[in-house]
């Protein structure tokens, strides 16, 4: 790790002010589960770390009826074990429980994950399928507009993810097919069904990050059953191909994993 | 036997410090004035070095010194060597290319050390290492052994034209050809044995300390064999004379073979300590471990098995190409030859065998012994072939094996090994019963109703351990003898120190070895201290690998205990005025048999040291040493049966059940033995379905972290069903065979035989990742 300086703001205003002072040499630090390993491998060398873990505005989960708002500083473990989320939107809580391992879940945060937008991160699939909103210190951005490409989001320099919010659907579930090495998703699918249709968010498989599988959404909106996607083919060209799986294999996974997510949604 | 003697499941004494985080590893060591090293490593798989510019790095804060290969060679430090001479079949010696500890002219794999930076802190050393500018001229790269042998392939070493290190054979070719000419059926298979990265939990580390006052060196190193490290560093690398070099391997967190070898880093840290005048510590990070720890396996093999009309084996032909990486590591030549082809007879009576092995240089990390070393490769070849032959013939794989088992011992195979004892059928029967093989078809049908494909695969392995009779290995080219030494020091109060040349790096020696004393004298294991891993304390030893610490290391202790017992009896007989032959030692008491005359063990020991009442002419003290040289290899064997369920939609394999029925000879501590089997099985299953070492075309190791290299985790594994049968090894006094490697040796073919059975396609390579299984399934559905 290169030498860096550490800063601990206690409010959002202080954090953004620090960020403005330090400019593009600074990075926010949340759980550090992505940033610290990257720094240890000398792939990132921020001169200043602005620790968001003591910023009160980023904490907390609120559930009003079927509306859920999760502060950016909430850990995956808090999401996974929150009784209200579990009762209103069990698929989302279950997803958080599948992230990494216990250590990662107790450190890593929703805000850090969303801001980082790893092509295999789990939350983006859910937020796309749920039509969620990403709240920042400046604005609110719909998930469809927030997630833009590999590690690319709508965030401006120094902008902080303060929360994510969404309304719980009638039925939902997340199914994750893991990369055997990293245990990230090789293909993760979140399905969400509402009266006006079904949305399908896919992570880990797409060549440009998480995406909505529109053919799947159409088919499932007509018939929310696993076999509804049987006749579909997923275009291989849009899939990642790497040492862990070819695009053909991932295209197959998108279908299979979607079917399993639908099946699971019926059992939640 | 006492409650803690042979056969008792004594809890591991060493676990108190390991589990509470109080182990003392090399990286925990600290000496006054100690500084930190970072190595400048090649980012290229093959390149010429046109220049090294250290000026910017030297000017950085905290930098004490930067040293390179020219300086190293200038100081007379020798090249790394392979210590086992193997000749090609035409009689020419193996062709070893030069491997300087710091490259000065050419780099041949990504990660090869080029320079060392010594600085105040590890971070500063790493910063400065990055600032060293090296002018590389890239050269063409080859990473696959089969490619490296082709005309026009990039050439690695001028000493080895065509990248061929040796072209070696074993067995009788004419007799084998003759056997094939009579065959009613021939089974042919191409087999790929995947390259593995050892991944011990503790990464390698070295701390070099030069003391100018005494002109003496101390090296703390993560070694499985500190004495061999000292010998090689002094006799071959000229780092320091043997009597001026102390090597300490304290607690070591796993090795699996990868810590047998003497690597550039410990040589360079010692040398750099003298050059810079400060103690120098280096600790590998995980990426460096992937890039520089010797890898394992990496064979391509064509095999043919000839059978007569009655399905008896007539002959076996094997052609193997072994990738040894960019340089010949310490024992690399022995792995694909004398540790591999000598086991190709498996558990079967095979009248004629011929094996041809080509060892090849490539632009990859050097390959050497890794848990099993050659024997997993042999077992995979035989057991995949046996299963395949049975399927081709439509006969039961178990019955086919049974028919061809060796049944009388000793048995001379056509490939050097002489099996001393065994009961292969007992293991097969135990395995089949534990696995409920007869109920398998029912389970397969039930799985099918859930949309899953069940498969059953077996593997009947044999291996050679208790490595090894010195004379035999000497005649086969080994540069060292493979005996073991021990010293038993009895203190005046009767407690005992065992000094052993074996090295424990996870095996539980501190417990198992102490159990020998508990057995012998009825003393509690807590009264015994096992001392190892320090060349100043233990006079000499050959270390731990090849499952030798039990059969060889404990035999040496056994011999030393014989001498201690004899002397103690003499003293007691003298004091008790009895006949020496009537003295028995049990439960910590030294008695005259059949009388109530006795002494406490501690009284005898004290008497030995006061010398007040010893037989005339007896030297005082109670301390005895022994060297033990085995008379033969030992031959653990067993039957492993794996049952899997494949998800046809994703190709995912779940190991539903794994049965290991082993014959390890006498078992000293069944709990520790079971743990060894569990660990070995995890590694073997890891090789079979998870672990893939991948180089891209430019020679970059693209699986150099746990993000990309899949290690077996608890959830990949079922609860193992482990059992042992005991046919005692006639070759050593304890009847032990060894258990450290069996799990990793026997399991890969069982897993692949099970998966191929499930999917109905035999064309599948390790690791059988979900995608590969899915593709293999698609090819037949
Ligand atoms: C072993 C391991 C396994 C993992 N497995 C999974 C998995 O299966 N699925 C998965 O989804 N993830 C996985 N992760 C990643 C984990 O979920 C991370 O916690 C997450 O991606 C980043 O969150 P963090 O809070 O740790 O962010 P950090 O690492 O602290 O930061 C990540 C990036 O986001 C920025 N950032 C942080 N917080 C904010 C904010 N509030 N606003 C704006 N920018 C911010 C930082 O500057 C940095 O660039 C794994 C990580 C590890 C180490």
Automatic annotation (TrEMBL), chain A:
Ranges for domain FAD-binding PCMH-type: 1-171
Keywords: FAD, Flavoprotein, Oxidoreductase
GO molecular function terms attached to this record: FAD binding; oxidoreductase activity
Domain of life: Bacteria
Record-linked SUPFAM superfamilies: CO dehydrogenase flavoprotein C-terminal domain-like, FAD-binding/transporter-associated domain-like
One Pfam family hit: FAD_binding_5
The UniProt record lists the keyword Flavoprotein: yes
Protein name (database record): Carbon monoxide dehydrogenase
Originating organism: Jiella pacifica
Organism lineage: Bacteria, Pseudomonadati, Pseudomonadota, Alphaproteobacteria, Hyphomicrobiales
TrEMBL record, chain B:
TM ranges: none
Lineage: Bacteria, Pseudomonadati, Pseudomonadota, Alphaproteobacteria, Hyphomicrobiales
InterPro entries registered for this protein in UniProt: Ald_Oxase/Xan_DH_a/b, Ald_Oxase/Xan_DH_a/b_sf, Ald_Oxase/xanthine_DH-like, AldOxase/xan_DH_MoCoBD1, AldOxase/xan_DH_MoCoBD2, AldOxase/xan_DH_Mopterin-bd_sf
Molecular functions per Gene Ontology: iron ion binding; oxidoreductase activity
Name of the featured protein: Molybdopterin-dependent oxidoreductase
PANTHER family assigned to the protein according to its UniProt record, in alphabetical order: ALDEHYDE OXIDASE 1-RELATED, XANTHINE DEHYDROGENASE
Keyword set includes Oxidoreductase: yes
Gene3D superfamilies: Aldehyde oxidase/xanthine dehydrogenase, a/b hammerhead, Aldehyde oxidase/xanthine dehydrogenase, molybdopterin binding domain
Aldehyde oxidase/xanthine dehydrogenase a/b hammerhead domain location: 20-140
Domain of life: Bacteria
Keywords, ordered alphabetically: Molybdenum, Oxidoreductase
């Amino acid at each position: 790790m290169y030498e860096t300086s550490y800063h601990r703001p206690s409010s959002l205003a202080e954090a953004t002010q620090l960020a403005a002072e330090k400019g593009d040499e600074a990075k926010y630090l949340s759980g550090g589960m992505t940033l610290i390993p990257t720094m240890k491998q000398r792939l990132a060398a921020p001169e200043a770390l602005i620790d968001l873990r003591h910023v009160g505005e980023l904490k907390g989960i609120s559930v009003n009826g079927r509306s859920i708002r999760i502060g950016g500083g909430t850990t995956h473990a808090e999401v996974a074990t929150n009784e209200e989320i579990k009762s209103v939107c069990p698929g989302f809580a279950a997803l958080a429980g599948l992230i990494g391992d216990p250590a990662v879940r107790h450190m890593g945060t929703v805000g850090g994950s969303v801001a980082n937008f790893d092509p295999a991160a789990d939350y983006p699939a859910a937020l796309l399928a749920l039509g969620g909103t990403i709240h920042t210190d400046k604005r609110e951005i719909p998930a469809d507009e927030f997630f833009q490409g590999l590690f690319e989001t709508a965030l401006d320099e120094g902008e902080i993810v303060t929360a994510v919010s969404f309304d719980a659907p009638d039925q939902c579930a997340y199914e994750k097919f893991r990369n055997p090495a990293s245990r990230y998703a090789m293909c993760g699918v979140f399905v969400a069904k509402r009266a006006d249709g079904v949305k399908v968010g896919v992570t880990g498989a797409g060549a440009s990050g998480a995406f909505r599988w529109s053919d799947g959404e159409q088919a499932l909106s007509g018939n929310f059953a696993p076999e509804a996607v049987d006749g579909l083919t997923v275009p291989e060209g849009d899939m990642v191909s790497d040492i862990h799986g070819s695009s053909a294999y991932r295209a197959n996974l998108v279908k299979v994993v979607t079917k399993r997510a639908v099946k699971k949604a019926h059992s939640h | 036997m006492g409650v803690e003697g042979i056969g008792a499941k004594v809890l591991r004494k060493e676990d108190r410090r390991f589990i509470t985080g109080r182990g003392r590893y090399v990286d925990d060591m600290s000496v006054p004035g100690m500084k930190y090293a970072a190595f400048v490593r090649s980012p290229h798989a093959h390149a010429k070095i046109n220049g090294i510019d250290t000026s910017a790095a030297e000017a950085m804060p905290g930098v004490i010194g930067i040293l390179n290969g020219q300086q190293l060679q200038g100081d007379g430090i020798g090249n790394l060597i392979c210590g086992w001479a193997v000749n090609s079949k035409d009689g020419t010696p193996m062709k070893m290319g030069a491997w300087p500890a710091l490259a000065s002219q050419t780099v041949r794999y990504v990660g090869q050390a080029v320079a060392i930076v010594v600085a105040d802190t590890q971070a500063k050393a790493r910063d400065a290492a990055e600032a060293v500018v090296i002018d590389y001229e890239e050269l063409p790269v080859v990473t696959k052994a089969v490619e490296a042998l082709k005309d026009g392939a990039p050439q690695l070493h001028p000493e080895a034209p065509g990248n061929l290190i040796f072209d070696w054979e074993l067995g009788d070719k004419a007799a084998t050809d003759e056997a094939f000419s009579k065959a009613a059926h021939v089974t042919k298979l191409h087999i790929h044995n995947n390259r593995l990265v050892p991944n011990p939990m503790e990464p390698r580390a070295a701390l070099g300390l030069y003391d100018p006052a005494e002109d003496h060196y101390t090296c703390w190193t993560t070694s499985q064999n500190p004495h061999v490290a000292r010998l090689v560093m002094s006799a071959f690398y000229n780092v320091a004379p043997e009597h001026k070099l102390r090597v300490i391997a304290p607690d070591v967190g796993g090795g699996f073979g990868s810590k047998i070898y003497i690597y550039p880093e410990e040589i360079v840290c010692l040398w750099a300590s003298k050059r810079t005048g400060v103690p120098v510590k280096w600790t590998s990070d995980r990426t460096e471990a992937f890039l520089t720890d010797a890898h394992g396996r990496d064979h391509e093999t064509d095999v043919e098995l000839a059978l007569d009309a009655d399905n008896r084996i007539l002959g076996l032909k094997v052609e193997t190409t072994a990738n040894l990486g960019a340089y010949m590591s310490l024992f690399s030549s022995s792995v694909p030859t004398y540790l591999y082809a000598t086991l190709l007879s498996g558990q079967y009576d095979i009248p004629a065998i011929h094996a041809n092995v080509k060892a090849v240089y490539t632009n990859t990390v050097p390959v050497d012994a890794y848990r099993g070393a050659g024997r997993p490769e042999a077992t995979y070849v035989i057991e995949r072939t046996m299963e395949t032959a049975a399927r081709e013939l439509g006969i039961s794989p178990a019955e086919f094996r049974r028919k061809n088992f060796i049944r009388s011992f000793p048995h001379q195979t056509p490939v050097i090994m002489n099996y001393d004892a065994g009961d292969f059928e007992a293991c097969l029967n135990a395995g089949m019963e534990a696995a409920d093989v007869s109920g398998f078809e029912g389970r397969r049908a039930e799985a099918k109703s859930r949309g899953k494909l069940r498969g059953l695969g077996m593997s009947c392995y044999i291996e050679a351990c208790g490595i090894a009779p010195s004379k035999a290995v000497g005649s086969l080219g080994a540069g060292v003898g493979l005996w073991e030494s021990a010293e038993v020091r009895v203190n005046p109060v009767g407690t005992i120190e065992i000094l052993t040349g074996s090295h424990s790096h996870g095996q539980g020696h501190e417990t198992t070895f102490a159990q020998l004393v508990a057995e012998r004298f009825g003393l509690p294991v807590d009264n015994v201290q096992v001392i190892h891993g320090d060349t100043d304390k233990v006079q000499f030893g050959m270390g731990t690998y090849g499952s030798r610490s039990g059969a060889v290391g404990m035999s040496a202790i056994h011999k030393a205990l014989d001498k201690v017992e004899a002397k103690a009896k003499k003293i007691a007989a003298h004091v008790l005025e009895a006949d020496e032959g009537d003295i028995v030692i049990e439960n910590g008491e030294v008695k005259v048999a059949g009388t109530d005359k006795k002494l406490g063990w501690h009284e005898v020991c004290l008497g030995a040291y006061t010398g007040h009442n010893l037989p005339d002419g007896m030297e005082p003290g109670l301390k005895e040493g022994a060297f033990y040289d085995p008379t033969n290899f030992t031959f653990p064997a067993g039957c492993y049966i794996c049952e899997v369920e494949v998800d046809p939609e994703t190709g995912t394999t779940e190991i539903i059940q794994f049965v290991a029925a082993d014959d390890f000879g006498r078992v000293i501590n069944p709990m520790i033995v079971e743990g060894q089997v569990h660990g070995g099985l995890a590694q073997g299953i890891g090789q079979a379905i998870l672990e893939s070492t991948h180089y891209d075309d430019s020679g970059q190791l693209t699986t150099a972290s746990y993000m990309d290299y899949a290690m077996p985790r608890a959830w990949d594994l079922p609860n193992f069903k482990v059992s042992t049968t005991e046919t005692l090894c006639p070759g050593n006094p304890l009847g032990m065979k060894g258990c450290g490697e069996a799990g990793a040796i026997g399991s890969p073919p069982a897993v692949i035989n099970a998966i191929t059975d499930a999917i109905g396609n035999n064309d599948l390579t390790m690791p059988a990742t979900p995608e590969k299984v899915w593709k293999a399934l698609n090819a037949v559905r």
